[in-house]
Amino acid sequence: MVSNGVRGLLGVGFGLTPEMPEYPQLAKRFLDLYADALCIETRLFAGMAELLDALDAHGLTWGVVTNKAERFARPIVDTLGLTMRCRCVVGGDTAARAKPHPDPLLHACQVSGTNPLNCLYVGDDIRDITAGRAAGMKTIAAAYGYLGNGVEISAWDADVIIQHPLEILELLGSS
User: What is the pLDDT of residues 23-41, one digit of tens each?
Assistant: First the structure.
């Protein structure tokens, strides 16, 4: 449920939906607590540091596009020591519409000076793959991410499914 953010976690934990009167207050409380503990025990998935090092070594541009609000995403990227390395950080509130709309991905391309047709978009939710395809990108479904209880990953219609971040290097022919 982590991938579904506040809505998913409050739904599972308390049976609440955004339409319920008690939802806004509990959502605000949740986000306040989250902000206070944002970077405690936060770390990259196994293999991700090596992948990013290899991308940097090959001069390949990369960025972060998340549905997490930018006010939360940026401190996480900074805590992980990635701010100076990534070309952009785009949050769910950066563009007019969040994923599954392509707006955040297209914004990231604009900021980074990258053609969407030359991008690979890696995601751990069907909305990532939907957004990537709508933006004209090749899509990679990460089977090691925060997969929810929704549609099976094989039905997401991604171009490729990977089990480990370093498989991306094999796809790029840079291993």
Answer: 999 999 989 999 999 999 9
> Do 16 and 26 touch, CB atoms closer than 8 A?
yes
List the beta bridge partners of residue 89: 64
Give the class (CATH, top level) of 48-172: alpha beta
The residue with tokens 């991306």 is 168
**From CA 117, how far away is CA 133, in angstroms rounded?**
10
| Whole-structure pTM value | 0.89
Question: How far are the Cα atoms of 37, 62, 134, 169 from residue 76, in angstroms, in the given order?
Answer: 11, 16, 27, 24
Give the helix/strand (H/E) hosting 36.
Answer: helix 23-36
Cβ neighbours of residue 99 under 8 Å, at least 6 residues apart?
65, 67, 92, 105, 123, 127, 128, 130, 131
Amino acid at 42: T
Residues 96-145 pLDDT 10s: 999 999 999 999 999 999 999 999 999 999 999 999 999 999 999 999 87
Ordered DSSP codes for 55-80: HHHTT----EE-SS-HHHHHHHHHHT
- Structural domain spans, the chain: 2-36, 48-172
